[in-house]
Fold:
Amino acid sequence: MKNILNFFLFLLVFTSDAQEKSVNVNGKNFAVFTKGLETRKPNSPVLVFENGMGVGIGSWNTVIDELAKSAPVFAYNRQGVEKSDKIYQMPTPKQTAENLKALLKTMNIPPPYVVVGHSMGGLYARSFAGYYPDEIAGLVFVDPADFTESKDDWNQIFREIGVPEKRIDEMMYNRLYQPKQVASRSDSLNFGPWSERQELAELRRTDFAVIKNLPLPNVPVYFFVGGKFEVPVANRSTDYDHERFFHVKNSKNIQRWLQLIHSSSKGGALIYLANSGHYIHRDDAKAVIANIRLLLEGL
Structure:
């Protein structure tokens, strides 16, 4: 609990220190943070950050100032997150990519971009790169929501750890198809994190078909993977060994992510940090900073 309180305290401090500004795009205001754009050299890359699900700009406060010494940075809050307005449209990959593109254009921040995405932001980073592949100089995924997985991938993991087939079917139905209470799309309380969670569930039901069909730009691709199991005892599954599931799933993810790296002639890297949890950029900021700088130096 103490760590969680400290984390949110960091977010509040960073938000105030960063002097966020509001940018209006198509009648909606987005909270943004930039640094180093004033001294940007022509055609040099800009680091563009996509936050995790429902998380604001402050989640990057451990790395963004230091990285701004190597390249200009741009971070923002997606629709309905913290100070950014609600849009009352589901945050699909296309909708989110168009919002980001409009923001960058409005602020006169031309490409190339190195897009850095954490968790759900990794999924949105991948889709932005797919919709605007000619504008991307590099991709960095920080423990991303796995946009390469399929339902069968999950089933195979459960089989490997000994879950009975009947229980696998039940769990997958509950995870993907069990009807959930859906609020009205005009309900302002339920846009932002809620809608992103619903969008992720929809993408999982289709095996991320929309994203898998988008082109992958031929650029350096970096993945950061956290190896620390963090699920509290009270939240662990009673159907299977949750920690074993985590490690097996991590190994399967790594195999697919390596294939994605190898699909680019520009190469890349997969950095596995055994003592880092989901927020790798907070648990091991130095490793994230150092490796993103390596990517930038190689461009």
